[in-house]
Fold each of these.
Amino acid sequence: DRAPGGTPGTISLNVQDIMQLRQIVNGDPEALAPFLENMSTRYPELTQQIQSNPELFLGMLLDGLGGNLPDTEEEAAGGEDLDLHSEEAPGNFPGVELSSEDEIAIGRLCELGFERSLVIQVYFACDKNEEIAANVLFSERQ
Amino acid sequence: PVDQRDKSKKQRNLNLVQKEERQFRLGFHQMHLLTLLSHGYQRNKWLNNKKLQTKLNNIIPNSVFDLLHPEKDEEMPLRSTRKLLDGLTKCIKIWDKYYEVVDSNTTGRIKTYGLYMRPWDKISFGLDGACDIQHCRFSFNETDFVQKLTKFRKGNRDLGAQGFVAMLRAVGVNARLVMSLQPPDFTNLKKISATQEKGKQEENSHSSTNTDKQNEKIFEDNLLAFQPGIDNSSTIKFPFKNNFASKMSTIDDILAELNESEKFPIFWCEVWNKFNKTWITVDPINFKIIEQHRFNSNGKSKLEPITKKQQKYNMLRYVIGFDRKLGCKDITPRYTTQFFAKVFKKRCTRIPELETWYTKSIKYLNHLAGRTPIKIDKYEEQYLDNKLSLEGIPDSLQDFQGHPKFVLETNIGQDEALKPGCSNCGFFRLKNKNKSIKVYLRDDLLKLRSPRGWFMEGRTLKKGAKYSKVVHKKSFTTREIEDERLYSIDQTELYVPPLASSNGEIQTNSYGNIDVYKPTMIPLNCVLIEHGLATKAARFLNIPFAGAVTSFTFEKGRTVKPSITGIVVLRDYKEAVCEMIDGISYSQEREEYEEKQ
């Protein structure tokens, strides 16, 4: 596909926007329309990318959504009286433990020329999906 | 009179958006569609939460449990179905007592569009002109979801329907979460300013200078409130349209209309009835009804908004069933009676490429869920195909426009012809006129092209081919009216280009190029190398080649330019040319680099 603008086969959203969009898809779908309008002005090439690669976009939104991020199920399940509107910012990863598999994947991503702290954040934000993480990292750099 | 008609047409066009905005709307529609799909997928996944299931399991008494799982009545399977339906009716009542629907009006929260369809001028604002992004400050995760359904036991209708499905799944019923996706209508091409001006006029009769100021205040507050994300140093800027004024006065009108649309649910439930192999519809919240869908009937569902008012904010176009194995499926035809005549045209899938795009997306979600086809899917497919096949000839002229199944004899295009020997499948009677028009199946239409047109498709006329039609056409070069003969595909055959000679001479057209519109147009012993440097490389190597015309570009002033995007050479030369291209581009890069230094 000869997609004008942007590298073909990528979705150029930054980590922050992906996290935000995931959160909205998860819990506040009413805000989808305004948020998407906002995004489509900030990323003029986004629609085109979604048109040529819907799977990647869906993957970014859903793959392991809410699975491995702190602030979800596992950790929160303990506290019954969790404040419904706790405003814990996504992206803080306090004391994340890395398995050897994670280490290897993170190593590989670092070899692509990214800073380790950024790689770890993105890697977990993409729910340990190395491919999507790489994609996000590359589009970040542009 | 002709002038006037032209004028009114122009006037109408002035109120329609331009190409760029159309593309934006279609793209936005698609983007919104995917995110809504993701939302449904995610919610459906949450329904299977163990803690939720355990808690909801307790609210169904044994007597109802037995009704939901009847034995197969060998004598009269209908009796088993009856029991299941009784059980479901009881479940609706149980759920009604268990879960309290709270309307956003009564909770002090600003009334919003919810998941109903937004008009194009209300994408970034709510109905009161305030920016809705403020809501997304809160994160709402699976734990919150479970708590809302088990501890607080109240919320909006959408959540209510979701909880109902979870309850049925908790007691082992094969229940689906059904969602009607409502992205904005991309077929609505009206300009925003036109509707806004109308709003302004109405507004002038009220006084609203104060509200403007208030709105701006709200707007600023919202901006401050919304600074999401990991890194607060990069604040997101909102390109808000500076235009809230028009929105204030008509809130009451919008609310009244929204109420009409909101009578119909966004989420509901389907239950598999194994006794007659169909899905039963259960709407536990809005209409509180159960619907059975019979095979071999194009039955009407109560859940489809029909009137203009009802459809204003709720246009049933994409109904997706999310099952307990996390699979999903488009089941729209179950809820429509005029799928082809009305609904099809409002779906982006009416564009063939987007049909592929849409199926790809749905397929991906099933892949993500690890869901493979099961027997039930086949029964459902049969049902849906059958229901679609029962849809008859449209009853209004307008509905024939773009109808994928039927075509009026009078609407057959210049470049179309009926298959020889086919007959009409019905008549359409014009109102107030004692006349009727023949109706044909679109499948019986043949696409016609000129010999040149067929060549662009990589085909050439058979010997002794007979034309189907002669049309009058303005010649491109002489601008004079000429006759043009059109042929159908069965009068053509695949064009096989002559082989290149052993020393690489390629037969070219009168301009010295070779036409390669389709891969089959490359001579068998040759290859096409598409690269900007290909010509240079071949010249350098001093080998015979031909420039390849792969398409045409149309430019202003009606000039057509062939675009030569590469070359055709003997297969044997392929490697040499590619190496040479690499070499040239390397040395070019080097030169550029050195120049910069």
Note: Chain A touches chain B through 56 residues (CB under 8 Å).
Amino acid sequence: MDEYLPELMRRLLDGFSMTLFLLGWSALFATIVGTMLAIFRVSPVPPLRAFGTSYVNIFRNTPLVVLFILAVEGLPTLGVAIPFEWFAVVTLSTYTSAFICEAIRSGINTVDPGQAEASRSVGMTFGQTLGQIVLPQASRAVIPPLTSVYIALAKNTAIAAAFGVVEATGQLSNLIRDFAPFIYPSFFAIAGGYILIVAVISGIASALERKLAVVR
Amino acid sequence: MVAMDSVQKWFGKLHVLQDIDLQITPGEVVVVIGPSGSGKSTLCRTINRLETIDEGVIAVDGQELPKEGKSLAGLRADVGMVFQQFNLFAHKTVLENVTLGPIKVRKHSKADADRKAHEQLRRVGVDDQANKYPAQLSGGQQQRVAIARALAMEPKVMLFDEPTSALDPEMIKEVLDSMVDLAKQGMTMVVVTHEMGFARTAAHRVSFMADGRLVEENTPNEFFTNPQSDRAKDFLGKILEH
């Protein structure tokens, strides 16, 4: 016990630092790429629409583990040499951006088409119509589906454990290996960490939703 | 000002616009009437290319409508549009609704745009509502804001797509009054409407549409008292009896 507790704390900290690293960077890249894809999918330019649709169909329909294998085994053959955790960020971002795209597109679809027509008829361009009229009104409708996507992402970071990234789930395996009698405390500590992360994401989401609700 | 030449449009198999030829001179007020589904709204919406056409040519102020992109946006800035459902920007105040185009499209300063917006809002009698959101206004007030929003762009032509069809009866007058004022001031207007009173008092010309065709065009007086086509006689017979 004397040896276990400090070691648990250290590995919890290490593990969740890596989990948050994966979550933070993947969420950032996935949000940027996903927003661009959503704009492609509603744009008036057919090749951009086709690109957006194909991207979503390919990456949303492929199991995340398969994408991990592709990144870890495939990218090095193309000369990409980066640390394992960045392979994980690339994979998670690629996969999650497809879901972000669809969440944002569903929000765009909740805005009355008359809003965009009125915007175009005062002479605003596609970009202005999107930025000034459609996206601000879509933002509130987008929050619940986006929250689900970020929560799924937080938990999907655990898959990186199977590909040599020692994040929280990886630390759980190590703890069980090194301290077999303490399997339940280790499990509850790690699971509790994930629950806390998801609770924070949900909390931010409902605060945002309340804030945006006033604008109307 | 507006020239439509042999315009054709299909919605799938439905031939919604058939051989439309329409010339509108500057300052002219043309009222388009006809039964539901005759294509009159579609016709109105093709003039700023909210609806595309399949054949023919539409030109505004001598310039053929660009297909898309910035040049199309530029042309739309010169064509004001008022919708049946008002379509005010729901997340912006009345004042912001009116200034958005002048600031973002015409690149006017905010102070300039504000001043001109208040002028337009006064013109249609809703300046006291400037800081409210659209949802806080009555339908008639919203539609007058929509007119002010279009006017703030200083358009060459104004299109009205059934501007009073979504309004309670007592609010129709206030909107029509604003439109009559506008007509008197020499604005070129295309008005799709069921308001025969407006057609009689403000129109220079009535275009009667049925089944995708412009069946008959005449002065309001001639059209209402002495329609030529059977289709127009039938239509007027139905609407003027009550």
Note: The first strand of chain B starts at residue 2 and ends at 11.
